[in-house]
Amino acid sequence: MVRLAEDAERDVLVRDFGAVPDDPADQAAALRAAIAYAAAHGKARVLLEAGRYSLHSFVVDSDEKHPGWCMRHLWLCGAQGLTLEGATDANGRPATVLAGCHAGENEQYLPAILWADRCAGLQLRNLAFTRDPVYSSAGVVVGRGEDYVVVDVFEGNPHKDGMACFCANRFDLQTKALLGESVTYGQGAEAGAVWRSIEGGEGRRLRLDSAMVAGQVKIGEGFSWHMGANTEFQVQLKECRDLILDNLHTSSSNGFAMQTECCRNVKASRIRFQPEGNLLFTAPRDAWKMYKCEGVFEIEHMYVEGVRMDGQNMHSTFLLVDRILDDRRLRLWAKWSYAPLRNGSTVSIFAGSEEYRNTIRSWRPDGQGENGHYYWVELAEPVNSIPFTPAAHMVAACWEPESYTIRSSAFRNIAGCGHIVKHRQVTIEDVDYRNLMNPGILIGAEWTGFFEGGHPGQVTVRRCTFDNCGYTPRCGATGGIGIRTEGLKGFYNKDIVIEDCTFWRVPVGVDVHHAENVRLTGNIFPKGGERYWTDSRTTKRIVIEERE
Which pTM value belongs to this model? Predict the structure, then answer.
């Protein structure tokens, strides 16, 4: 890393605070000290040298109510205009590794490697994130019976006696392609079934006594699994604005690899989620979840490989009507975690798929319950003319991006979808989706039990490629691209353009439900097969323009 003389006054070197790369002792305390000093003294950059920083110690956020989310190895709170920057190797990839260390126990909540709260202008550059030991393993199936499977673990991968078997998947070892549906999910194998060390395989042979797993695998296939699948976040960026993320690589994660929650305006480039060495999977949960974010999101050159469930899941949650107090005041409820609303924010009220616009005049939180949070809201315009039904709901504009654009990216070997799109103003261009269990792109809200939205509109998918995607349905949709709203009836997905895309091995190119104003134009299907399937009962104004 080259430093100019004039940079000295604005930079903080972590080595000056005792941080030593490639030392297995704890480096987290020294890194926290360097970051705290930089934030307190208005410094611009915290610089980390090439090498691996082992993170053992952590701090606890006493205000965080979830016991698994309160631990952070590194915690940036309220930093303004700060850059956390590592070094690069000869190929320009991150040479600075932040390794969250743990004891290798099953299903344990682990400290976030990096957690940022309420930061403005934060930049993260040239950083790699991993767990030590890595949180997954992989090998080749060498034996099986009716109720057991035997795997020889690849050299360098964990092979600990007693390892659990969460989010397991099969692979074709010749092509390194994901095969079929996941073997186990977030519940793992049968209760009590764990890997046991047995003789053979150069000391790396494991046996799992599980009829469920044995019935789904074949000898010679690759097999990958994780030690747990908790809902936790390895890198969490919360209530931050004007973020720049550049040249970041996650190779092993214990939960969601990264989440931006309630953030505004993000520019991201060269973000990779990719396993290293002989591993086949990166994370047992999503690569990058965007939750209740707003502003403008611009992403380019992102690569996602080996995650369960999705590459990038973008959603908010619906506000459901708990009680109507008068013609302008309502008590609303939203599932999952709390997020602030904002005075002056537009809200869309849906009674069926009919949309009514209004504005939040004032609001306040009104407690918790039913695995969610209540909000007292006063609207600018009366709502007594709206035909509220049990399925009536609202979408808050302050919980959704103004626009989302991704270009020149790739999604590989994902036991889920590449993209899940649940909001408006989305552009996806020149993206390659390959070997995905569910549709490459799934467009539409998920109502039943989750209440995750909002409702997509003004979505353009252009010059994308889909190969070996969507053979396992998700929310009732299949194929290269699925458009469907789960659990609601109506024309919720509107103004969608899919053009100049290429569909190779897919059960259907585009599967369309609950949609209005969809244009399918110039798409090509080199392998033939069913191009489009549209549900005539739940769609209208579908235009198909074939390439000559």
Answer: 0.97
